[in-house]
UniProtKB/TrEMBL annotation:
GO BP: tRNA transcription by RNA polymerase III
Name by which UniProt lists this protein: Uncharacterized protein
Cellular component, GO annotation: RNA polymerase III complex
Record InterPro entries: RNA_pol_III_Rpc5
Stored Pfam families: RPC5
């Protein structure tokens, strides 16, 4: 209990790192081996992250891959560059093999994968 009290007393008006919000967290012992927490400590809170579209987990290798959709209608998005990247990754349509799956379905860099 002393740790909780120390955390509250450290949150003085002159504190360099004030507590902004407290959220109760309930952890299940049954799920503790399957729980993943992703944090983005370098992103400001005003910079909203897009939704994760797909998540791939390999528990034996302890790896996770998150597929995040890009905002292609943003005025800051460079369509020409996105098309160029997709072309370099997947190759020209006329040279693709029929059985080869393309990475960018819309011939446009419209997603990013985080590992």
């Amino acid at each position: 209990m002393d740790e909780v009290e120390d955390a509250h007393t450290a949150n003085t008006p002159n504190s360099d790192d004030p507590v902004i919000k407290e959220i109760p967290v309930f952890l299940s012992k049954r799920l503790e081996d399957q729980l993943y927490l992703f944090q983005y400590p370098l992103r400001p809170t005003t910079n909203k992250l897009p939704d994760v579209k797909k998540c791939f987990i390999k528990p034996n290798n302890e790896t996770v891959k998150l597929e995040v959709q890009l905002d292609v209608v943003s005025p800051n998005f460079d369509i020409g560059k996105a098309e160029d990247v997709a072309l370099r990754v997947d190759g020209p349509a006329e040279h693709r093999k029929r059985d080869k799956e393309v990475f960018f379905k819309n011939n446009l860099l419209d997603k990013i994968e985080y590992f």
